[in-house]
Design a protein that fits this description.
This protein is mainly alpha-helical. It has one domain (about 15-110): Arc Repressor Mutant, subunit A. It has helices at about 15-20, 30-40, 45-55, 80-110; strands spanning about 60-65, 75. Strands 1-2 form a two-stranded antiparallel sheet.
Length: about 110
Amino acid sequence: MPRVADDPKWTDPGLLVMGSLADGPRHGYAMVRDVEETTGVRLGPGTLYGAIARLESRGLIEAVDSEDTRRRPYRLTARGVEVLEHQLAGMQRFAGLGRRRLAHHTPILRGAS
């Protein structure tokens, strides 16, 4: 799948939101907690809701009907699932390459200590 210029990058808070929603619909505060618990990154309200607005406008997430008017849950769309899978596959390839490169240099680094 070709990358679209405004798809979230793996360094983008939008990807953290999408990763949280991969586990099922969540409202904003639940996303903040999940992202912090799984990555150690704390998304502030402006960052979170800015990411939600961008993802929603790009058709990657959508609001879910809820009886709770104070909390609006969101979920991934089919396109959101595709984009997230594509980004994660790229991250996995990059991580594998980085690990192989580090393994090549580990003896050199250990000898320098």
